[in-house]
Amino acid sequence: MHPLRVALYSHDTVGLGHTRRNLTIAAALSRRDADLLMITGNPEATRLPLPRRTDVITMPTIGKDAAGDYRSRVLSLSYPDMINVRRALLSSVLGEFRPDLLIVDKVPRGAGGELEPALRQVARDGGRAVLGLREVLDDPASTAAQWRADRTTQAIDEFYAAVWVYGDPRVYDPRTEYRLPGSVADKLEFTGYLSRGRTSGLTGGRGSVGQLDPARPYVACLVGGGQDGDALALAFAEAAFPQDHLGVVVCGPYLAAERRARLRQLAGRRSDLVLLDVVPGADAVIDRAAAVVSMAGYNTVCEILATATPALLVPRTRPRAEQLIRAERFAGRGLVDLLPPDRLSPGRLADWLASAVAGSAQATLRSSTSVRLDGLARIPHLADALLGVTEDAA
Predict the structure, then answer these.
(1) In this structure, are 349 and 378 located in the same domain?
(2) Domain that holds residue 364
(3) What does each C-alpha distance from 231 to 236, 303, 368 come to in angstroms?
């Protein structure tokens, strides 16, 4: 018998969210006797710390243009030709790797349907497929329209043995929010949030937090991959920080060059502002910070909830309402604070930072919260149950 083989696919058109989520799942599964293969449309994945016995294959990249249409990010191929290249790569790799378990993030057919032939091959080879979904996709009307356009229900019925929702229904329940059909709801398993233990199994994950003086307290600003966080980063960089505290901005790899240059100008004018560019190490930055201002992407919120650090979420509201919905639900539980993006200003950030550093009830609430934050501990057991693996064999 060969070790368990697990493949994790993410289409990745914008940002690192899908890749980072699959990476944390791979780390959780790496504690089994398993070979793990990540397949991603994100070349930046090769810069991230990997679990043991995990390899990465990156596909030719696609993205969205200003009109919202998909296109090749680098090559001059048309979008249909690019999908054909990626489809052939996926079919070849998964056909040879023959995973026992294929975990697909968010897009059940893959971008442009590129994953369908490989899904059929995995099933013929006796493997099982799981669709992984963040808890909030978008507002209900937009989600329903997207599911109809993508024929998501049909894909789940045809290809997937289970749907793992990386959340807690007490916070957000897609079965009722999206009125999911019975055939889909019957396959749902709520893992809990992928929050606690995110760096377990990874190496080199503290990134450039080591550049910071351990004796100097700081407040931090995180903008995810940076592709749409420039307004928050600039407002933070212009805010007054609490006395004797540094301000640290984690820019992300996709922050526009002109915005990055503006941040450098601001940092050059003040001795209490530090810019960090690298992606690895966000967990450590949050954990050591006196307070954090952040967007409300899934991975960053999970990282925040795993700490006692007071947090203010400034969610994006376009092109999806996902971040706003998530921020509202957690703010309603007192686990974070919320600032709508149309109220964002350096003065409001400065006021919140001063208050948060002086004292916050969030840490107490998080330590006693009933929200499930142990999804990474549960996923190996869900995988074992799906594959019929006994605890002794695992």
Answers:
(1) no
(2) 207-368
(3) 9, 22, 34
